[in-house]
Design brief:
Blueprint (H helix, E strand, L loop, with lengths): L9 E3 L5 E4 L1 H7 L3 H4 L11 H6 L6 E7 L3 E7 L3
Antiparallel strand pairs: 1-2, 3-4
């Protein structure tokens, strides 16, 4: 269900390292799970979206504009 979702979903472990990411999230972040698994979101240097996501507090929803080209609605929550 998570893998087929058109919504980008990233699951982090308690240390905020990437545990799972669906194909939509891979597309948005510009990385694939095989290279991102086990890496903290803040360490995804290629992704300006990741840098914006880490600024969001838990249980907060925010709209992020990256490079003025695309807008993303982000919700950060725990499972």
């Amino acid at each position: 269900m998570v893998q087929a979702s058109p919504t980008g979903i990233i699951i982090l472990d308690p240390d905020e390292k990437i545990k799972m990411m669906n194909p939509t999230a891979e597309l948005f972040m510009g990385v694939n799970i095989s290279s991102a698994k086990g890496i903290q979101l803040k360490d995804l240097n290629k992704s300006s979206l990741a840098k914006e996501i880490i600024k969001i507090s838990l249980n907060e929803t925010s709209t992020i504009s990256v490079s003025g080209l695309k807008k993303y609605k982000i919700h950060k929550s725990s499972l």
